[in-house]
Each structure stands twice: as structure tokens, then as C-alpha cells.
Amino acid sequence: MNKYIVDESGLSRKFGCEIPALRVFDLETFGIDCESFLRDMRPTFSVLHLDPYDAKRAKVDLLKRRFPQHAERLHGFLSDYYANKVDLAAVYDLVKQLADVDRNELDRIGMTGRRKRSVARFNMQRAKSKWNFERVSAQQFRQNVAPGDSRSLVRVFHEMESMVAEHPQVRHLMESFAELVRERHPDCKKLRLNMHQMFVFADILSAGDNAPEGVHQDGADYIVSALVIERAGIVGGESIVYAADKKTELVRRTLAEGEGIFQSDRQLWHYVTQIRENPAAPPDYGHRSILGFDMEIVL
Q: Which of 114, 135, 145, 283 has the most crowded CB, counting CB atoms within 10 A?
């Protein structure tokens, strides 16, 4: 029987009510040697590409804060901005009204990326007591969230390198997560799984934002919001899981390397606090590297 750091059974007893699927695990939970897996994974984050949407969203968020009366217009602009159909010149009438300090911040955002990422998508089908994998293109990526959420817009990310997506222990993890879904849905035979590889960094000038959308859901049935591969030179990055009311904290934990959280995404909410450089620890900037998994039941 797998041993979890936290699970919904213990939480249900603690809160006196039934808690949906929610488990904090480490790699050993699934029989994976932590040291060797992390050693294999850490260097792969160095070849990731910058997330171009991170800076675009941050610039539009700044404009929304300064010109809230134009929020609807700016959301429409962001869709075309993401698709490279327009650039900031399309909202120059707003840019030119910014105070110097805000315009300097807009310029700084445009020159510094805070997040690198890649994505892989799999169709998984269970047959003869095992899961079969079919990797399909994930380049047209959008999340099933509210229309006003920037994550509902189409984004195109680099496909994950095969040395990560096809790593035997990564496949073992995906099978293990699929079996967790089957615990709640014994008849489940098909899943669509998106896997995310993300690197977020922070330096002395700026924080790294793991969840700029705030307390949120990802638009899937079940997720592993983060499996931490590396934490270095940072403070912050606390993972918080909330009940359906978006207020009751069920779990608050700074995940260590090799730890992750599996949860129901339909019934629970989550958030990750910003990371900041720890001036007392090397290197001269801090970072957090994670793998994430979104799972949708197809059949």
C-alpha cells in the first residue's frame, strides 16, 4: 500500500467532513528512487524556452490595474497579442498616459522573463491491466477555465523533450497518477494527460510568480499541481490547497524536492505563493523547477 505524507482520509477526520481526493506524496510513495530521478531531471530544465506569454500577460495586467475602465478592451487585446496579431502599439493611447514609474515597469517586464516551460500531451488507454500511451501534439494549448481568465486563450508552447516525456520513471509516474484516478472512477479506461515542465526564477529585483492567476483551478478532472524537482536560493513557494469555498485551507506546505500534490481539480482550489531570492543562500538568483500533470477522464 502506498504511503502518503497527507491524504484525504486523514484530512476528513481532521475537518469532520468528507474531503475530495487530496494527497501529498513523495517519489518513494510510487517506488521511485528520489536521488537518481532528480539527478536525471534537473539538467533538462536548462534547455527549456522562455514562456513568451508570461511577460505579455504581466504587461497587460499592469495596464488593467492603471486603466480598469478598459479591462474588457485589454482582455480582447491580450487574445490578439498572444496570437502575435498585434503588439503594444495597438494600445499606445494607454501606454502614453502611464506615469514614468509605471512605464519603466512596463519596459522592465518586456526585457525579463521569469518562467521557462514546455508541454507534452498523451492519450492514455487502459487495456489488459496496463496503461498504453499515445503522445500527440500539444502545441495548441488552452485550459478549460472561465472566459475572462487569460489561461482560456490559445497558447503555443515548445513540445517537451523526449528525454523527459519518455523517461521510464516519468511514464511510471503517469501510470501511478492514472491509477489514483481509477480509485475514484473504477470504470475509467481512457485519459487525456497534459504534462508541464516549468522553471520559475527570482532575482534581487523581482519575485517569481508560480500562480499569477491567484487561487485557481486548472480546468481538469484531477491534477498534480506540482512535483518539485529543484528548489535553490529561494524563500516562499508555499503550496496551498483550498476547499470548495476557496477559503478553507486543507493543506499548506512548502514542497521539498521530490514532493508533490495530487488533487481533485473540480472540487478543490489551489495556489502557490511567490518565490523570492534568499539573499543568504547561493546562487545569486533563486529558482524552482517543477513537473505538473493535468488529467481529464475521456471514458
A: 114
Amino acid (one-letter) located at 157:
F
Q: Say how far residue 241 (Cα) sits from the centre of its chain.
A: 14
* Whole-Å CA distances, 144 to 158, 238, 275: 20, 25, 26
Q: What residues does 90 pair with on adjacent strands?
A: none
Q: How far apart are CA 40 and CA 221, in angstroms?
A: 29
Alpha carbon distances (Å) from 89 to 6, 51, 63, 94, 96? 50, 21, 13, 10, 10
Q: What is the CA radius of gyration of the chain?
A: 20
Q: Are 235 and 278 in contact (CB under 8 A)?
A: yes
Q: Specify the pairing of strand 269-272 against strand 239-242.
A: antiparallel
Q: Please provide the DSSP assignment of 226-238 as one string.
A: EEEEEEESEEE--
CA distance 237 to 225: 12
Cis peptide before 279 (omega within 30 of 0): no
**pLDDT 10s digits, 174-186:** 999 999 999 999 9
**Of 149, 141, 157, 123, which is closest to residue 49 (Cα–Cα)?**
157
Q: Reduced to 3 DSSP states, what percent helix, strand and coil does the chain have, rounded to the nearest 5?
A: 35, 30, 35
Give the pTM. Answer: 0.88
* Residue 293: all three cell numbers together: 500533470
Tell me which of 206 and 270 has the higher pLDDT.
270
Cis peptide before 283 (omega within 30 of 0): yes
* Residue 270: predicted pLDDT: 96
Distance CA 211, CA 207 (A): 12
Length of the chain: 299
In the chain, the amino acid numbered 184 is R
Residues 238/253, Cβ–Cβ less than 8 Å: yes
Phi-psi region of 243 (alpha: psi -120 to 50; beta: other; left: phi over 0): beta
